[in-house]
Amino acid sequence: MKKNSTEPDFQIIADSLCSNAFSEKGMHNFQEAARFIRNLPYGRNTDKTDLLSLFREQRGTCSTKHALLKQLAAENGFPGIRLILGLFRMHARNTPEVTETLRKYQLPYMPEAHCYLRYGDEVLDCTKPDADPSAFLPDLLLEREITPEQITTYKITFHEEYLEKYRSEPAFDRYTAAELWEVREQCIRDLERYT
Protein backbone atom coordinates (compact mmCIF):
# COMPACT_ATOMS: atom_id res chain seq x y z
CA MET A 1 0.00 0.00 0.00
CA LYS A 2 1.27 3.44 -0.89
CA LYS A 3 2.35 5.64 1.99
CA ASN A 4 0.43 8.80 2.75
CA SER A 5 2.95 11.61 2.37
CA THR A 6 0.97 13.99 4.63
CA GLU A 7 1.21 11.65 7.61
CA PRO A 8 4.33 11.42 9.76
CA ASP A 9 6.66 8.50 9.27
CA PHE A 10 9.79 7.10 10.89
CA GLN A 11 11.52 3.76 11.15
CA ILE A 12 10.76 1.61 14.21
CA ILE A 13 14.25 0.99 15.54
CA ALA A 14 13.93 1.24 19.34
CA ASP A 15 14.44 -1.85 21.48
CA SER A 16 11.51 -1.19 23.80
CA LEU A 17 8.10 -2.64 24.65
CA CYS A 18 5.81 -0.96 22.12
CA SER A 19 8.40 -0.88 19.35
CA ASN A 20 9.20 -4.57 19.79
CA ALA A 21 5.49 -5.46 19.76
CA PHE A 22 5.05 -3.76 16.38
CA SER A 23 8.31 -5.20 15.00
CA GLU A 24 7.27 -8.72 16.02
CA LYS A 25 4.11 -8.23 13.92
CA GLY A 26 6.23 -7.30 10.89
CA MET A 27 5.77 -3.53 11.06
CA HIS A 28 8.91 -1.47 10.52
CA ASN A 29 7.69 2.12 10.26
CA PHE A 30 5.07 4.41 11.76
CA GLN A 31 2.71 4.37 8.78
CA GLU A 32 2.55 0.57 8.86
CA ALA A 33 1.82 0.74 12.60
CA ALA A 34 -0.86 3.40 12.13
CA ARG A 35 -2.54 1.35 9.40
CA PHE A 36 -2.55 -1.73 11.66
CA ILE A 37 -4.05 0.27 14.56
CA ARG A 38 -6.63 1.93 12.32
CA ASN A 39 -7.85 -1.49 11.13
CA LEU A 40 -8.28 -2.98 14.61
CA PRO A 41 -11.96 -3.13 15.62
CA TYR A 42 -13.29 -0.43 17.92
CA GLY A 43 -13.78 -1.75 21.46
CA ARG A 44 -12.77 -1.10 25.02
CA ASN A 45 -9.68 -2.78 26.37
CA THR A 46 -9.73 -4.71 29.63
CA ASP A 47 -6.91 -2.56 31.06
CA LYS A 48 -6.31 0.86 29.50
CA THR A 49 -3.05 1.22 31.42
CA ASP A 50 -1.60 -1.72 29.46
CA LEU A 51 -1.20 -0.36 25.94
CA LEU A 52 0.01 -3.72 24.66
CA SER A 53 -3.44 -5.14 25.39
CA LEU A 54 -4.43 -3.95 21.90
CA PHE A 55 -2.24 -6.71 20.46
CA ARG A 56 -3.70 -9.42 22.71
CA GLU A 57 -7.34 -8.30 22.52
CA GLN A 58 -7.24 -7.19 18.86
CA ARG A 59 -9.29 -4.06 19.58
CA GLY A 60 -8.99 -0.57 21.01
CA THR A 61 -10.67 2.78 21.52
CA CYS A 62 -9.59 6.22 20.38
CA SER A 63 -7.72 6.55 23.68
CA THR A 64 -5.74 3.32 23.68
CA LYS A 65 -5.06 3.34 19.92
CA HIS A 66 -3.62 6.86 19.87
CA ALA A 67 -1.79 6.53 23.19
CA LEU A 68 -0.01 3.46 21.80
CA LEU A 69 1.01 5.34 18.64
CA LYS A 70 2.21 8.32 20.72
CA GLN A 71 4.25 5.94 22.88
CA LEU A 72 5.72 4.38 19.75
CA ALA A 73 6.79 7.82 18.53
CA ALA A 74 8.33 8.67 21.91
CA GLU A 75 10.27 5.39 22.04
CA ASN A 76 11.74 6.10 18.61
CA GLY A 77 12.73 9.70 19.34
CA PHE A 78 10.09 11.25 17.09
CA PRO A 79 8.82 14.23 19.15
CA GLY A 80 6.59 15.92 16.57
CA ILE A 81 3.56 13.70 17.23
CA ARG A 82 1.27 15.00 19.99
CA LEU A 83 -1.53 13.08 21.74
CA ILE A 84 -4.61 15.30 21.89
CA LEU A 85 -7.73 15.09 24.02
CA GLY A 86 -10.50 16.97 22.24
CA LEU A 87 -14.07 17.59 23.29
CA PHE A 88 -16.58 17.74 20.44
CA ARG A 89 -20.32 17.74 19.87
CA MET A 90 -21.09 14.12 18.94
CA HIS A 91 -24.35 13.99 16.97
CA ALA A 92 -26.14 12.02 14.27
CA ARG A 93 -24.30 13.69 11.37
CA ASN A 94 -20.73 13.09 12.57
CA THR A 95 -21.43 9.82 14.44
CA PRO A 96 -24.47 8.10 12.89
CA GLU A 97 -24.13 5.11 15.23
CA VAL A 98 -25.48 7.18 18.17
CA THR A 99 -28.57 8.54 16.39
CA GLU A 100 -31.12 6.35 18.17
CA THR A 101 -29.69 6.95 21.64
CA LEU A 102 -29.67 10.72 21.20
CA ARG A 103 -33.21 10.61 19.83
CA LYS A 104 -34.40 8.48 22.76
CA TYR A 105 -33.07 11.01 25.30
CA GLN A 106 -34.05 14.02 23.17
CA LEU A 107 -30.51 15.37 23.05
CA PRO A 108 -29.19 17.29 20.04
CA TYR A 109 -25.68 15.98 20.72
CA MET A 110 -23.44 14.62 23.45
CA PRO A 111 -20.22 16.40 24.45
CA GLU A 112 -17.71 13.63 23.83
CA ALA A 113 -14.02 13.36 24.69
CA HIS A 114 -12.03 12.05 21.73
CA CYS A 115 -8.33 11.24 21.48
CA TYR A 116 -6.34 11.68 18.28
CA LEU A 117 -2.88 12.77 17.14
CA ARG A 118 -1.60 16.08 15.84
CA TYR A 119 1.50 16.42 13.69
CA GLY A 120 2.05 20.07 12.92
CA ASP A 121 -1.29 21.26 11.57
CA GLU A 122 -2.36 17.77 10.49
CA VAL A 123 -4.83 15.69 12.52
CA LEU A 124 -4.42 11.92 12.43
CA ASP A 125 -7.39 9.82 13.57
CA CYS A 126 -6.76 6.07 13.65
CA THR A 127 -9.91 5.15 15.59
CA LYS A 128 -11.33 3.11 12.71
CA PRO A 129 -10.56 2.51 9.02
CA ASP A 130 -12.89 5.23 7.75
CA ALA A 131 -12.16 7.78 10.51
CA ASP A 132 -12.07 11.26 9.05
CA PRO A 133 -11.05 14.21 11.25
CA SER A 134 -13.22 16.53 9.15
CA ALA A 135 -16.24 14.76 10.67
CA PHE A 136 -15.56 16.05 14.20
CA LEU A 137 -13.29 19.07 13.75
CA PRO A 138 -16.14 21.49 12.87
CA ASP A 139 -17.81 20.47 16.16
CA LEU A 140 -14.67 20.71 18.29
CA LEU A 141 -15.26 22.61 21.54
CA LEU A 142 -11.72 22.49 22.96
CA GLU A 143 -8.57 20.44 22.93
CA ARG A 144 -5.48 19.89 25.05
CA GLU A 145 -2.32 17.87 24.77
CA ILE A 146 -2.04 14.90 27.12
CA THR A 147 0.38 12.07 27.82
CA PRO A 148 -0.42 8.37 27.24
CA GLU A 149 -0.76 7.93 31.02
CA GLN A 150 -3.59 10.49 31.08
CA ILE A 151 -6.04 8.41 29.02
CA THR A 152 -7.33 6.78 32.19
CA THR A 153 -8.35 8.76 35.28
CA TYR A 154 -7.45 12.19 33.92
CA LYS A 155 -9.55 11.80 30.75
CA ILE A 156 -12.56 10.46 32.64
CA THR A 157 -12.40 13.19 35.30
CA PHE A 158 -12.00 15.88 32.64
CA HIS A 159 -15.02 14.56 30.73
CA GLU A 160 -17.22 14.17 33.83
CA GLU A 161 -16.40 17.71 35.00
CA TYR A 162 -17.25 19.10 31.59
CA LEU A 163 -20.60 17.28 31.53
CA GLU A 164 -21.39 18.73 34.96
CA LYS A 165 -20.77 22.25 33.61
CA TYR A 166 -22.76 21.48 30.50
CA ARG A 167 -25.90 20.73 32.49
CA SER A 168 -26.79 24.43 32.45
CA GLU A 169 -27.57 24.18 28.73
CA PRO A 170 -31.34 23.97 28.03
CA ALA A 171 -31.30 20.59 26.29
CA PHE A 172 -29.27 19.02 29.09
CA ASP A 173 -30.61 20.62 32.27
CA ARG A 174 -33.26 17.96 32.91
CA TYR A 175 -30.54 15.34 33.46
CA THR A 176 -28.09 14.86 36.32
CA ALA A 177 -24.41 14.54 35.46
CA ALA A 178 -24.63 10.83 36.29
CA GLU A 179 -27.56 10.40 33.91
CA LEU A 180 -25.71 12.21 31.14
CA TRP A 181 -22.71 9.96 31.75
CA GLU A 182 -24.94 6.91 31.34
CA VAL A 183 -26.30 8.28 28.06
CA ARG A 184 -22.72 8.77 26.97
CA GLU A 185 -21.90 5.18 27.97
CA GLN A 186 -24.79 3.97 25.82
CA CYS A 187 -23.36 5.98 22.92
CA ILE A 188 -20.04 4.16 23.37
CA ARG A 189 -21.85 0.80 23.40
CA ASP A 190 -23.54 1.91 20.16
CA LEU A 191 -20.12 2.57 18.63
CA GLU A 192 -18.85 -0.85 19.71
CA ARG A 193 -21.92 -2.55 18.28
CA TYR A 194 -21.86 -0.85 14.88
CA THR A 195 -18.12 -0.70 14.17
Describe the SSE topology.
Blueprint: H1 17-24, H2 30-39, H3 53-57, H4 62-75, E1 81-90, H5 99-104, E2 110-119, E3 122-124, H6 133-136, E4 140-146, H7 153-166, H8 177-194
Antiparallel strand pairs: 1-2, 1-4, 2-3
Describe the protein in words.
With 195 residues, this protein is of the alpha+beta class. The chain has a domain at 86-194. 41% of the residues lie in helices and 15% in strands. It has 8 helices and 4 strands; from the N terminus they run ααααβαββαβαα. It has a 4-stranded antiparallel sheet. A hairpin with a 2-residue loop joins strand 2 (110-119) and strand 3. The protein is elongated, with a radius of gyration of 17 Å. The mean pLDDT is 93.
Main features:
elongated, single chain, 195 residues, 41% helix, 8 helices
Query: Which class best fits the helix and strand makeup?
Result: alpha+beta
Instruction: List low-pLDDT spans.
Output: none
What percent of residues adopt helix (DSSP H or I)?
40-55%
Number of helices: 8
**Biggest beta sheet summary:** 4 strands, antiparallel
Q: On the 0-100 scale, what is the average pLDDT?
A: 93
Number of DSSP E strands: 4
CA-atom Rg in angstroms: 17 Å
**Helix-strand string:** HHHHEHEEHEHH
- The 3D shape can be described as elongated
| Termini Cα gap | 23 Å
Order of neighbouring strands in the sheet with most strands: 3-2-1-4
In short:
This protein is an alpha+beta fold.
